[in-house]
Amino acid sequence: MANNTSIGVIIGNRDFFPDSLVAACRTEVLSTLEEHGINAILLDTDKTKMGGVESFRDASICAQLFKQHQDTIAGVIVILPNFGDERGIAETLKLANLDVPVLVQAYPDDLDKLDVARRRDAWCGKISVCNNLYQYGIKYSLTSKHVVHPKDPSFSTDLKQFIGVCRVVKGLRNMRIGAIGARPGGFNTVRYSEKILQRHGITVVTTDLSEILGQANRLHHTDPIVKDRLEQIRSYAPTGLTPDEALYQIAKLDVVLNQFMDEHVLDATAIQCWTSLQKNYGCNVCTSMSIMSENMLPSACEVDVTGTLTMYAMQLASGSPSALVDWNNNYAQDDEKCVLFHCGNWAKSFLPDIEISNAPILGTSVGVENTYGALSGRTPAMPLTYGRISTDDVRGVIKAYVGEGELTNDTLDTFGNRAVAQINDLQGLMHYVCRNGFEHHVVMNASNTAGILKEAFGNYLGWEIYEHGKKI
């Protein structure tokens, strides 16, 4: 995912420290941000002394600048080349009222430069700045090292994580999800609260499945838009033994789903993928869902709205597609491994051997001939971030868990979309999932972004969050 993120920058200053520290800091920080493709929004050097923020007047000028860019600023970085003025920094953020993530960085001192002309005292100043932000009720993030130079490799990691946090927070606060059809009757597990989601800025747009199927049935296989979509499907994945009639059904449905998403400006969908679809239309929707997820418009089965919310969150954190999976099977006698499975809608990124096929399990009740459109494929070894967002309607909160592990190449002789996951203390994680009433669906992403998600969910969105494997 291209960065192109705009970040507000506050350079703190204090009058009895040398101005040369501010000038050098400005050059170093701008160079680092440019290396990461970040557009920095900060005071010009002629607006305040060296472009720093020290007084209430400076804070007012900087806040006004940030307000002019409030539609594009995804976060703010506070830079402390010296102790900094804690009030000026807090007042800037208060007056700007951006309500975006804030990262606080402070420069380290050099042991041979602790004289009056060159000492920084930013170690101490950072504590004071954070104390003021806490008093003002402003949420903030910290660098992994208490003090760190902008050219230190760890700051580069901190910066990448912070930008990920900014993407997640901004994206989820204005997310729009399409809920297409009613959840399958046997799936109480995917019930959720629209009202709780809306309170957090997440809008759910609903439609009856019959509306979608009716529009699809009115299309003809000779329609140019259908023929074009069929070619896109053929180029997306090998069709295997899927008959042409089923492919045309898949293509017509895909046309209508994309029109629905465009009409309602949706970021993601959750679809009633069985059994009405197979009985009344004659195919699976998995291929369309896979294509959408691969194109960064995640789609979840069984009208799992908070599942697709999780998919979108992980996509924002990593810049890569997500997949909704079942915590499905034990892996032989290995307590640290399990099988992840779904009948077949994972994004192509997870399936190098992807093929359009059918759904044997579902076919036992609706007829295998009505389940073409499901995907078959095995996910190879890759990094794993897993997690789940859920609305706890009884307590009126949003809760989540996240963690990291790995996907392996262990032998797995079965059908559908499948993978083997290895997770430390997997048994403890399953106890947590069961004890806290989470769904059997979980989301996987080929990344190491659990820390980003925890910071975004817990610190900035105010959700209850558990990160598996972390003691702090």
Automatic annotation (TrEMBL):
Transmembrane segments: none annotated. The keyword Isomerase applies. The keyword Isomerase applies. Keywords: Carbohydrate metabolism, Isomerase. InterPro entries: Fuc_isomerase_C, Fucose_isomerase_N/cen_sf. It holds the Pfam family Fucose_iso_C. Signal peptide: none annotated. Residues 340-465 form the L-fucose isomerase C-terminal domain. It comes from the Bacteria. One of its GO terms (molecular function) is isomerase activity. PANTHER family: FUCOSE ISOMERASE, L-FUCOSE ISOMERASE C-TERMINAL DOMAIN-CONTAINING PROTEIN. This is L-fucose/L-arabinose isomerase family protein. It comes from Sphingobacterium suaedae.
